[in-house]
Amino acid sequence: xxxxxxxxxxxxxxxxxxxxxxxxxxxxxxxxxxxxxxxxxxxxxxxxxxxxxxxxxxxxxxxxxxxxxxxxxxxxxxxxxxxxxxxxxxxxxxxxxxxxxxxxxxxxxxxxxxxxxxxxxxxxxxxxxxxxxxxxxxxxxxxxxxxxxxxxxxxxxxxxxxxxxxxxxxxxxxxxxxxxxxxxxxxxxxxxxxxxxxxxxxxxxxxxxxxxxxxxxxxxxxxxxxxxxxxxxxxxxxxxxxxxxxxxxxxxxxxxxxxxxxxxxxxxxxxxxxxxxxxxxxxxxxxxxxxxxxxxxxxxxxxxxxxxxxxxxxxxxxxxxxxxxxxxxxxxxxxxxxxxxxxxxxxxxxxxxxxxxx
Length: 358
Hints:
Elements: H1 2-12, H2 20-30, E1 43-48, E2 51-54, H3 65-80, E3 86-91, E4 105-106, E5 109-110, E6 114-115, E7 119-120, E8 126-127, H4 144-155, E9 164-171, H5 176-179, E10 183-184, E11 188-192, H6 215-218, E12 221-226, E13 229-230, E14 237-238, H7 243-247, E15 252-256, E16 261-262, E17 278-280, H8 283-295, H9 297-314, H10 318-334, E18 347-349
Parallel strand pairs: 3-6, 6-8, 9-11, 9-12, 12-15, 15-17
Antiparallel strand pairs: 1-2, 1-3, 2-18, 4-5, 7-16, 10-11, 13-14
Helix pairs in contact: 1-10, 3-10
């Protein structure tokens, strides 16, 4: 896809050359090797002869959704595409922001870390799809593409003016940032609902908890609220992975937070404020905007339709996600100025630990 090709090259523009010295530093200093988490908890992968290898041990001996979903995405990509030999390092914790950006620098240069999750808007890191595009059982997503296609199909012919005239949100509202948005009245249906899972990979059922709501039910509202993860700030904030799911509801999406965290697709080349979403910094701004868009339904309908079509074009098909990974790693491999070889520490990955989701 031409738009994603442009975005990938924009992410890589700072990295004309990737050196062995940089890769050794990332492996030795920033990867997870033990319970001492002094680094960035990076995961080190290699592709040699179109096979996937992992060069540092997994954080958990049992299932861990984020890394297993990434492995799955890579195995699917390699089953379709031929990627040149390369090695790369992924960051799959919640975000790169002011609290950890300095760890991403070596010899006064930004390191070529591939972030699967989110980055504070002002940092131009390399970004790729996160685990939720494959599966996220803890959030009741066994197969993301299948789930999304069902909801998109249900909403395809729904008229905006027939929807519930409130703004809706469900999630964990147990911190200062999110709790200030909780409200249930003639304009708001914003309530805390969360089911904690006991084991990693266990299927979550937050929609069955008190105040719970399915994604299909949220799609019946004209307005969707999206809130950042953690406290939402430049130092203590992150994405919460649900922005794309809000876009698929054919509603106006309000992103309300002190700052914006970008995912791989959230790039100003294709995703634009007041065209695909509305941004506010606090509940007061959100309220003013909500009243405006409730009074101006033609404008609201246009934004809702554009965000819906954006989701269908860029985020619905898993094949597009795999194509993105192929293009990203092919371009990344061109920048390596050394030959990638296997070592005794490299473990061949042929499957994930269990595959009950796809």
